[in-house]
Design brief:
269 residues, Beta-Lactamase, Alpha-Beta Plaits, 2 domains, 22% strand
């Protein structure tokens, strides 16, 4: 089973309960059909593609981040929250996410929950693999920004065939370093964190405004004002370093909440 959506659907069928799969930051990864069984917390998570900070804190207070087995979250009638079962998605003692089953009447038995845990193991392996692949690509993008030509050339060779020019290079600057989850950006976008800035490599086949709006929202969720600078076109991987330098200038000129394009800076360059 090589698809996270398929795993969520299989878990819902196996346990006969509505299921969602979220990453460890409570962003929605996949969900199975719910029918009439849903509550405001689940509906909001699906519509927003993530749980709120309040919901996250409430659920984490039950120890799910360190749990190695199923954890029951009781109902909260004051919030309209149904009872649910959390199955941790872990690989090599690292929590990568959570499989959630709405189970207000506690119909899922411990034996049934145990039967579903191999699905969580498979999901964790896939999520761990995705995280590793993203990290590896992030290091290669960082090498494109190096001051030394050798690692830049090597990284350009390694990324040839993985992504294709032309690109828009974007720099996202916040007052203090904040994490940006690359899983929540289009898969075609390559990212890295370099010299205290997030750097995005956006191919022409992907919408730059949509990507930047999404990245800005993810950072602003952490109460971080974002200055964005962009430069395009970047015609080849060998030109990423120069485009990044130009995008940095544009980000430095931008005010919080603003996106500036190096091509329109004029005398501010």
């Amino acid at each position: 089973m090589d698809d996270l959506q398929e795993i969520a659907e299989h878990a819902a069928g196996l346990l006969q309960a509505p299921a969602t799969l979220e990453d460890r930051d409570f962003h929605l990864v996949a969900y199975a059909a719910h029918g009439d069984t849903i509550d405001p917390v689940r509906l909001d998570s699906i519509l927003r593609r993530r749980a709120t900070g309040t919901v996250r804190a409430r659920f984490e207070s039950h120890g799910i981040a360190r749990a190695k087995g199923p954890v029951r979250i009781p109902a909260d009638p004051s919030l309209g929250q149904l009872g649910r079962l959390c199955l941790p998605v872990r690989w090599n003692n690292v929590t990568y996410g959570y499989l959630w089953l709405l189970d207000d009447e506690e119909r899922i038995t411990p034996d049934q929950a145990a039967e579903a845990m191999p699905l969580c193991d498979r999901a964790a392996l896939l999520m761990a693999r995705q995280a590793r692949e993203r990290d590896d690509l992030g290091w290669k993008v960082a090498d494109l920004l190096s001051t030394h030509p050798e690692p830049r050339t090597r990284a350009a060779d390694d990324l040839t065939g993985i992504t294709a020019p032309p690109f828009t290079v974007a720099v996202l600057r916040t007052p203090s370093p904040e994490p940006l989850n690359p899983w929540l950006l289009p898969h075609s976008v390559l990212t890295t964190f370099w010299q205290r800035d997030h750097v995005l490599l956006i191919p022409a086949t992907t919408s730059t405004p949509t990507t930047l709006d999404r990245a800005r929202l993810l950072l602003e969720e952490r109460n971080a004002p974002v200055q964005i600078g962009v430069h395009s076109p970047c015609p080849t991987l060998d030109d990423v370093h120069e485009s990044w330098q130009r995008a940095r200038v544009a980000a430095r000129v931008a005010t919080p909440g603003e996106t500036r394009d190096w091509n329109t800076l004029g005398a501010l360059r």
